[in-house]
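Q: Could you fold this chain for me?
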Amino acid sequence: MRLTSLSAAGYRSLMSIRLDVGQVGLFVGENGVGKSNLYRALQLIKASAEGTLATEIAREGGMQSALWSGRRRAGQPVRVILRADFEDDDTAVKSSYQVEIGLPPPASAGFGFEPHIKEETLSVEPGRRPVEMMTRKGPAVFARDGDGRRLEHPVKMLNSETALSSLGNSGRYPEIGDLRAAVLGWRFYHGFRTDRDSPVRKPALAVTSPLLDEDGANLAAVFATLKHIRQDTVDLDRCIAEALGGAELDIPVPKETASFGLVTPEFPKRVFRPEELSDGQLRFVALAGALLSYRLPRLIALNEPETSLHPQMLPALADMIARAAERTQVWVVTHSRALAEMIGERTGARALTVVRLNGATMIEGMRPTGLMPAGDFD
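A: Sure. Below is the predicted structure, expressed as structure tokens.
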């Protein structure tokens, strides 16, 4: 189930924006234009599937921080509205999910700036007309079961709960469960910690790991899986060597834990452990684990992957992103026009320039309605 478009309204600097999404979504712009808000809006769709949407918004300062602070039309509800559209590559069936988050009413027992899930809808379009599979207003949810019957879900939703998570996890509503499972398969990599206690610097449990955790904690196990289970590290070896001056990964057979190190041409008999690597070296190695793992998630989102990397590492990073895009969807937000150009050359994707206009995050060339002109995402 492939993501085809993302819409966001009323969220931070995203007054109203809709983006069609191809195999590679590539966004470039200066500091402060709101690139990360695009990335974050996509991440909040996954949080809705996880059931952590209200918590995630609370962590970023609550609704007073999440809401668009510019001018609104008179009578317009004060809400954050997020929508994602999908298409099944096997059946061509289209699906749409939308969630609206607002403030608690004045007489509510909730906290003043606590995010309240107000409405949710999920529709499926198997033919000419969409079929509503789930509708939620306040605590009440109606959904279609496996036989197509529209039923009221017996459990009322709390204000902080999403119906996508609760119903999708119940086993009673197949279409909701399928979409939830698809979104839970996304991975967001927005900077790996490089401090002394970083999970990336630690050994990992010796468990076969087909893809990288979002915090990179199983990186050593991902490398061991490639080396000793798949027995194919050709792409990994090439990218590491190109980016790190001919260096090689040392990946011993795991015992209780998996580990890795780096061997450089200057010191061919010395294995540098992860705790000895520079921030740039470690970040690149972690990105290699994310982009070249045995399996890839349904969607990989990267936020400023060039951070701490030497410019000489960027061609190898672009190569890894292009290789990943052959197997899955990739979403990249970057400051670096050089990196964006390299990715574009390798994938054919056109970089969209993110700008700020009258306080709102827009895409260069976007219409005032928040839509891109037809043909701009070919």
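A (continued): The first strand starts at residue 2 and ends at 11.
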